[in-house]
Predict the 3D structure of the following.
Amino acid sequence: METAAKRAKLENEQVSCKEDTDYFRSYADISVHEDMIGDSVRTNAYRLAILRNYEKIRGKVVADIGAGTGILSMFCVQAGAKKVYAIEASSMAQQTEIVVKCNKMEERISVIHGRVEDVELPEKVDVIVSEWMGYFLLYECMLKSVLYARDKWLKKDGMLLPDTAILYLAPVTDPDFMDDRLNFWEDINSRYKVDMSSLIPYARKCITEQIHVRPFCGENIVAHAAEICRLNLKTVRQEDVNNVKCKFSFKCFGHSVIHGFVSWFQVTFPMDITLTTSPYSE
């Protein structure tokens, strides 16, 4: 029994290690960082939050978790940080060092190549900044690493950027999306003289069972959103987010077909700075 248990534990660790390797390898691709920095709403929200909190950053020590290109680290230096530890697990860290030197910030930013859980810092930090959010807020996110860093390095009166996260869910109607996807198989006959309409039931099943990452208009939402998760980053524990559960209900605005549910998140920073993926925002 003990041998089987140890073997199962080892296999789980090997799977986890492979998943981490694949995850970090994806962040070595420049296109990922191009997309993130190109998201001006996201980038400006972080820049504004850092600069508006300059009084709490000036002369302080900062840890940037999942630093990527180092852009948040450099914002912190612009806000007056004394020292920034830019921790990046992917091989992008090598390029980050070049960017830091190009901006003449190498004396104040130390790029550390490694997983947060595997590296050591020479001192406690006053601020932790991280763009940790994933799809559906918690999918493939770096929250676990942020919480690890918080518990290990953040001073008792330290600041987290962001410090609050909320996940919302609402029912939606979207007949055009479904029709367009199903009509594709109907139209094959007119284009190639091969009838594939028999695939429509299977296509409908696949589409309705999948998660789709795409923009949504507020007009497609048919009920007020429910708050299904609220995280205080100063106090939340990893076990709190391992299995998020809540009860919620919806009252639809009128009569319509519900094709699925849409989710979005909102994170807030000290000084009342908000970053949201809400379909009601620009």
User: Anything to note?
Assistant: The two ends are 57 Å apart (CA to CA). The chain has a mean pLDDT of 90. The longest helix spans residues 2-26.
